[in-house]
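The records we work with from here on pair a chain with its fold. These numbers are not coordinates but entries in a learned vocabulary of local backbone shapes. To see the layout at work, look at the sequence and tokens printed below:
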Amino acid sequence: MTKQDISTNSFKAWYLALRPKTLTGAAAPILIALSAAWKDLSLENRDFLWLPGLLCLAFALLMQIDANFINDYFDFKKGVDTEERLGPKRACAQGWITLKAMKWGIILTTVLSCLIGLPLIQYGGIEMIGIGAICVVFSFLYLSLIHI
């Protein structure tokens, strides 16, 4: 895929930037936990609540996308994403997404994930704010840790 194949800041560019193949890594642990909770609750004749499960899944997926955008943006700014880089092409390095647009994409996915996670306070208590904050911090710190 070359720059000519993808219009800058297009839907296709954003789709590639969110790296769909990585989303299973975010979804799998949530789906496993939900299936275990469903089984345990059914053994106790208690109802499984779908809404918090779906909110957890949506939060995890958005945080994965957020981390992908952050990685794409900062690796390009640091000059890490060069032609010698192995693996899939990165959106900013290819010119598919402008740096300004990627900044806004990061802001949007961070805020949206926090808004989706906020109702989880009702189910998990005020501690959920701390857990969400840690997720956001580590989506940014991930970058520092992989380039040490």
Notes: Helices lie at 11-17, 23-43, 50-78, 91-94, 99-117, 121-124, 127-146. The mean pLDDT is 90. The CA atoms of residues 3 and 34 lie 41 Å apart.
